Amino acid sequence: MNANVAMKQYHQNHVQGGVDSASPHRLVQMLMEGAFEKILAAKRFMATQDIAKKGEQISWAISIIDGLRSCLNVELGGEMAKNLSDLYDYMEQKLLEANIKNDPKILDEVGVLLLQVKTGWDNIPQEFHNNTLES
């Protein structure tokens, strides 16, 4: 077994183990981290002009962000959840634009927005982890 295959299997097992034991709050954090990692990877592939891999990473980031949006509970979260849904939609549109225009600055913009949302999410006090806008 070569080292790349072994590392990939280790990473899959590590991530799966983390998902199995994660709280709903932590799962959202993991999704945000995953989307950010995909944006960074897309930027690297953009720099090396690997268009196919760039597109795959952007697609994956869009899927993750769409998953975050689908978890929102707009009834419970009201205007805040609606605003977050709109922001996720904006991020997805900008990622599509970055892919079409091959523009790393747009990837940076979405990355900054995602990190701002994640920072807010990370700062939710422990006692409120079960009372979030995500269902």
Cα gyration radius (Å): 16 Å
How many strand segments?
0
SSE-based structural type: mainly alpha
CATH class: Mainly Alpha
N-to-C SSE string, H for helix and E for strand:
HHHHH
Helix content: over 70%
State which percent range the strand residues make up: under 5%
How would you describe the shape?
globular
Would you identify the regions where 5 or more consecutive residues have pLDDT less than 50?
Answer: 1-7
The largest sheet is:
none
Can you give the mean pLDDT?
86
List its traits.
mainly alpha, Four Helix Bundle (Hemerythrin (Met), subunit A), 81% helix, disordered N terminus
Q: How would you describe what is shown here?
A:
The protein is an all-alpha fold. It has a single domain, classed as Four Helix Bundle (Hemerythrin (Met), subunit A) (Up-down Bundle). It has five helices and no strands. The chain is globular and about 45 Å long. Residues 1-7 have low confidence and may be disordered.
